[in-house]
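Structure in, sequence out. Go:
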């Protein structure tokens, strides 16, 4: 009974009121974790891409410097493609140079020389 003599009804405990103090901190922690995950994904992709690009540039510079030598003009530069497959890189400048004339004697000339 209340001090005025009226009966008072017991208030039921609100389950939401008991959980409410924990909702905001949990939301903040989960949001922060999600934001960190997104930032990590972005940074890892951008760092990976910049590393791949730097590696490609270095490989192209290395191949270009190897293809300029005189030995490369004679035999080409072998490139490993994938799973043991190779390709030969030939410098365009080597192709544009005057060709070395090979002396090829025909069999008729050789027979004429031997018969004399």
């Amino acid at each position: 009974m209340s001090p005025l003599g009226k009966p008072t009804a017991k208030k039921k405990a609100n389950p939401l009121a008991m959980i409410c103090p924990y909702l905001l901190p949990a939301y903040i922690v989960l949001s922060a974790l999600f934001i960190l995950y997104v930032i990590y994904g972005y940074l890892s992709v951008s760092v990976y891409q910049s590393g791949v690009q730097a590696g490609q540039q270095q490989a192209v510079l290395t191949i270009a410097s190897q293809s300029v030598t005189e030995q490369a003009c004679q035999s080409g530069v072998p490139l490993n493609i994938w799973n043991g497959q190779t390709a030969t890189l030939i410098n365009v400048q080597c192709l544009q140079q005057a060709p070395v004339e090979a002396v090829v004697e025909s069999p008729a000339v050789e027979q004429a020389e031997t018969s004399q």
